[in-house]
Structures are given as C-alpha cells and as structure tokens.
Design goal:
GO terms for molecular function: flavin adenine dinucleotide binding; oxidoreductase activity; UDP-galactopyranose mutase activity. It is built from 12 helices and 18 strands. With 423 residues, it is of the alpha/beta class. It binds flavin-adenine dinucleotide. Flavin-adenine dinucleotide binds next to α1, β17, α10 and α11.
C-alpha cells in the first residue's frame, strides 16, 4: 500500500496536520508515533490528586483567529477557564510582576533606582544600533543590571548555552518596552498588562490538563495513528519515485514533525543536510511534581537564581482548580537536574526547546530545501526547528495543508468564531 501522506510524530503538529487533511477529504494517511501514546509535549498525567502537564507549563493563547476557531471547534470554548496572567520574577529576594522592566517600581526604592539608572544608560537609549547576538542584545535593550541579575542567569539556566552563542531572530518572545515607558511606569507605579509579550490572558481546560486540547483534535484521526513506531530512516525507492520509511511504510509525501536528529541515518540526506542536522541544538527538560502549601495567586514564577537548579515553578491549583491545592511543578534543564529534591514524580522531555544557536536558521533551510523536491516536508517545533508554541504549530500545519493543495478544511472552520484574547 502507498499512502498519500505519511506523517512522522504524533504531537500537536502531526495530529493537526492529519486532521486538516482529513477535513479536506484526504483519507490515505498514516501517522507514525515513536512513543506508546501520542501527545508529545502536550501530554498531561494525573499523579494522585494532581494534574501534571508533563511537557511543562502549557496555556492557550493565540493571535490567529483561524487557529482559535479550529481549537474551539474541537474543544468548545465553554470547556475552558480564562485567566488574567499572574507571573512573577524572583529578583534580589523580591517577587516582581513580569515583565520586570515595566514593574521595577515594585522593588524597594533604592534598588529600583539602581535598575533604572542602568536601563536609561542602555545602548538603545544611547542610540546605538542593535547588536547581532543575544547577550549583547540583552545588555543593549535592558541595561547591564537586568542583564546580569535576571536575563543572563535565567537564560543560561533554561538554554544551557551561553547567550553569546545565540541568535536574536527569535526575540519576539521577549517584551520590547521602550525606555521612556519603563521610566514612566516607575514614576506612575502602574502595572502595565498591555506590555506582556504573550499570554496576557490565557485559556486553560476547565477539567484535566492541557492534553484536553490535544485529545480533542486527535480523536477524529485516531484511526490513522500507529504508536510504538519510531521512524529511523526515510529513503526513496527509485529516483523521482515513492518514499519509504523504516524500509516498510510507503508514501507519496512525508510530513516530518519529529526532531531531525532522530532521522539522521536516513539515506535520503546528502552530506550537506546531514552536517546541517548535526549543527542543530536542543534542550532537554525535567518537569518535577512537588507538594507544598501555598497562598500565592501566581500562575508561574521565573527563578533566575543560579543556586537553584530549576528555572520556573507553576502553582497548578491556580490554573487547574480541580487539581490539589498544594501541587507545584518545576521546570529544570536536564543538565542542571538533581533528583531527590522533594519531587514526588519527574518526567524527562528529551526534546523540549530548539535552541536558536547562531546560524540555526540557515541549517534548517539547508535540510528543508534538500528534502522538499523529494516530497518530504518539515513541520512544527522540530520539523521547522523553531521556538513555536502549539498554536503556531497548528497555524503552520494550516499553511502546509494549503501549500499541498488541500485548502478545503477552511469550509468547516467558518461555522464557528469566537473573540480573540489579547496577546
Ligand atoms: C516548557 C514548555 C512550555 C511550553 N508552553 C507552551 C504554552 O504555554 N502554550 C503553547 O501553545 N505552547 C507551549 N509550548 C510549546 C508546545 O509544547 C509545542 O509547540 C508543541 O507541543 C510542539 O508540538 P510538535 O508536535 O511540533 O512536537 P512534539 O510535541 O515534541 O511532538 C513530536 C512527536 O514526535 C514523536 N517522535 C519523536 N521522534 C520520533 C521518531 N523518530 N519517529 C516517530 N515519532 C517521533 C514524539 O514522541 C512526539 O510525540 C511549550 C513547550 C515547552 C517545552
């Protein structure tokens, strides 16, 4: 049998792609998932009375109306709670609302003055051009003090890579607040929700965890999914002909959502593509569950202190009220992880963040440009090797469905629409 589409990886990218093809009338689809269950980073487990999102803190917020409609068509909006984001940074022994630079006024006044002086002396305020790597960019944008006490240690913890080795083409993830506004916020002592770069308000499923979103999209395409099927090789059977996966599954088109390094032994790669894959870097993440009573209203806390292995903590009950009142989960880069810190459960994500290391975009393009003429496409966080959230993965799947000549999924989407949350 030759499938029209073979999809590698059963995370949100893979199943959304399968679903969009199905909505467009395609039925010849096979999706191969390495694990014993699909879901990827969007999985949730119940551990005793706790809801644990095993891929770390996941919240729904999108600027794409089509993506929101797609999700709400599968899991109605009434199945979600909506939250005003409460996230804080632990800095100099204080907790300050995110983003730090527009809430410096929450620090004791002598500290606030120190930070403010550093901010107004930054490179941007002095009219210098933006630098081209992450460490210099942070100093240019936020000043040396915020860089040294918050951004550089926090980013060292999360990425495990010096900021000087990272590109700046992913920085839409970071607030862009100008110096004037930072000074005004201090003078007016006001909390500016509008300066959140994303997730100012977010949806979270009213029952269960984030996996509810995944499950709702995955259910109609369950029949296409084969689990416990790690793909190791892709090859062409004959020049210009059919593609073959693991020497067994044959297809006309392949959509890969799995990390490229897991496929590196594939005969389909030339040496240049193989070397490009070798340059791609990623992080591995431990998500650990802890029990500790809390009274905070915080959803999550950023913890730049390098004495602590973890970089973020999530207060589960504050966004999943049916989960026990004392559940906290923490995110720790595997390189820094130390077991036996009071965790009652821990999950390792072998692929968590694609690292925007210098030159990453050129490496990804080398791989994708090599494969596209053979009918092999990359999709999602790993297939496109980008710091995409789940909503962007769905958005990219929509684009790919269109590009492959299957835009009919749109017809089904028009029947429902909901207002978009501010992002
Ligand atoms: C800590 C953290 C917090 C996040 N927070 C948010 C958030 O708040 N909101 C949001 O929208 N997004 C968030 N994201 C991003 C979101 O998790 C991802 O964008 C999305 O889940 C990626 O989906 P994917 O299908 O591309 O990849 P994955 O979910 O990684 O799925 C890839 C799948 O491929 C399988 N696979 C791997 N290798 C092979 C192989 N060789 N053969 C077959 N199968 C294979 C894997 O088992 C997996 O199931 C967060 C991510 C992290 C790590």
């Amino acid at each position: 049998m030759i499938y029209d589409y073979l999809i590698i990886g059963g995370g949100i990218s893979g199943v959304s792609m399968a679903r969009l093809l199905q909505l467009s009338g395609v039925e010849s689809i096979c999706l191969l998932e390495a694990g014993s269950e699909a879901g990827g980073l969007c999985r949730t487990r119940r551990i005793g009375p706790h809801v644990l999102d095993t891929g770390g803190g996941h919240f729904l917020c999108t600027k794409f109306p089509e993506v929101q409609n797609f999700i709400f068509r599968h899991l109605p909006r009434t199945e979600f709670n909506v939250f005003q984001r409460v996230s804080r940074i632990v800095i100099d022994g204080c907790e300050v609302d995110f983003p730090l630079e527009s809430n410096l006024w929450q620090l004791p006044s002598s500290l606030c003055a120190e930070y403010l002086i550093s901010v107004v002396q930054n490179g941007e305020a002095r009219g210098l051009p933006p630098p081209d790597h992450f460490e210099s960019w942070i100093r240019w944008k936020l000043g040396d003090l915020i860089a040294e006490r918050y951004m550089l240690p926090y980013n060292r913890k999360i990425w495990g890579v010096p900021a000087s080795e990272m590109d700046i083409d992913w920085l839409h993830k970071i607030p862009r607040i100008d110096v004037r506004r930072i000074v005004e916020a201090c003078l007016n002592r006001e909390f500016g929700r509008e300066y959140m770069p994303s997730h100012a308000e977010f949806y979270y499923p009213a029952s269960g965890g984030f996996q509810q979103v995944f499950d709702a999209i995955a259910k109609p395409v369950d029949k296409f999914v084969l689990t416990d099927c790690p793909v190791t090789t892709i090859e062409r059977e004959n020049p210009g002909g059919v593609l073959c996966v693991n020497g067994r599954f044959r297809a006309r088109t392949i959509i890969n959502t799995a990390p490229w390094p897991t496929l590196i032994r594939s005969p389909i790669f030339n040496e240049e593509a193989r070397q490009a894959i070798g340059r791609l870097r990623h992080t591995q993440l431990v998500v650990s569950l802890h029990e500790d009573a809390y009274e905070t209203d915080t959803h999550w806390l950023y913890e730049p202190d390098e004495q602590l292995p973890r970089h973020r903590s999530f207060f589960i009950h504050n966004f999943a009220p049916r989960s026990a009142a004392n559940g906290i989960f923490r995110e720790t880069n595997l390189q820094r992880w130390q077991a036996g810190q009071g965790e009652i459960h821990a999950e390792i994500n072998p692929f968590a963040y694609p690292v925007p290391s210098r030159g990453w975009a050129a490496s990804v393009m080398t791989v994708l440009n090599h494969l596209r003429p053979f009918g092999v496409h990359g999709l999602g966080r790993w297939g496109q090797w980008q710091y995409f959230n789940a909503d962007v993965c769905i958005w990219e799947a929509m684009h790919l469905a269109d590009e492959l000549g299957h835009p009919q999924w749109r017809a089904g989407m028009q029947s429902q629409s909901s207002p978009i949350l501010s992002v």
